[in-house]
Amino acid sequence: MTRIALWVLVGCLTAAVYASEQIPEHDLSADQIVGKNVAARGGVDAWRKVQAMVWTGHVDSKNAPAQDLPFVLALKRPNKTRFEISVLNQKAVRVFDGKDGWKVNPGGTGGGNLRPYTIDELKSARDEQVIDGPLIDHEAKGVNITLDGVDKVNGHDAYRLAAKLPSGVTRHVWIDAQTFLDVKYDREARGPHGQPVIVEVSYSNYTNVDGLQIPLVIESGAAASGKTDKLTIDKVSLNPPLDDVIFAKPASPGRRNSVSIDVSASPPALPAMTRPTP
Fold first, then answer.
1. Considering the entire predicted model, what is its pTM?
2. CA 203, CA 162: separation in Å to the nearest integer?
3. Integer CA distances (angstroms), 220 to 90, 156, 231, 235, 263, in order
4. Are 69 and 82 in contact, with CB atoms under 8 Å apart?
5. Could you read off the pLDDT tens digit of each residue along the chain, which spans 278 residues?
6. Partners of residue 169 on adjacent β-strands
7. Which residues are bridge partners to 95 per DSSP?
8. What is the largest CA-CA distance in the chain?
9. Is CATH 3.80.10.10 correct for 26-264?
């Protein structure tokens, strides 16, 4: 074989190998994609053991008065959340107890800071699948999953799954065709003038935390705006002791019976090893 023929052959083989690594398995069903996603994230049994989770980190947003705003997010099954963020030495809080939600915004005084969730905020909060998302144990959660197609996400092929929630709302989840990790999802929200907008959320910098794959960078924003808020997780605590009182209706700012997430009471973050972003 001549040298030029050998060079062409090697080039063709290299291209074929590269193509085989990039082309997704188009014959996979929605159930098979979900199964591969669950396995890639650590397995259903491991996720079922997680009853509570706390993230601590910082947020960068073009709409915020400062950068690197520290936050704490507490999650507890079946659907309880508490989000605290410090803004210019004041604390903003959003709490959902699984049924009702409240928010405390900095800047005012007295009980005027404490407001209930709007109807749209309640609908969105009740649709959330905290801890593990809509795909893990989706049948038990009443979530119907279908395959919508294949898209490019950050230059990689990703399966687009449609997740129909028990409320009737459909959200889309994109699964990387190579790693089978979640890379994006979308949801409908209301814009500043009440108009419906699609919010896109992307995940990256996955890290192994006690066998679970958890993204440490989450970016979100309205798809049409091109602007995103970036949430960076610095610490993940699994199954910390979280009293239900922190998910109850907050006291008005300044009251003695106000509560907050006690990060020091949580166990130290589990050892994490970073992996390349898919």
1. 0.81
2. 17
3. 23, 19, 8, 20, 25
4. no
5. 444 443 344 344 444 444 444 445 568 999 999 999 999 999 999 999 999 999 999 999 877 667 889 999 999 999 999 999 998 888 899 999 999 999 998 765 544 489 999 999 999 999 998 999 999 999 999 999 999 999 999 999 999 999 999 999 999 999 999 999 999 999 887 766 677 888 999 999 999 999 999 999 999 988 777 778 999 999 999 999 999 999 999 876 555 445 667 655 444 444 433 333 44
6. none
7. 82, 102
8. 86
9. no
CA 187 to CA 52: how far, in whole Å? 24
Amino acid 209 reads: V
CB atoms within 10 A of CB 88: 10
DSSP for 134-147, written as a single string: TTTTHHHHT-EEEE
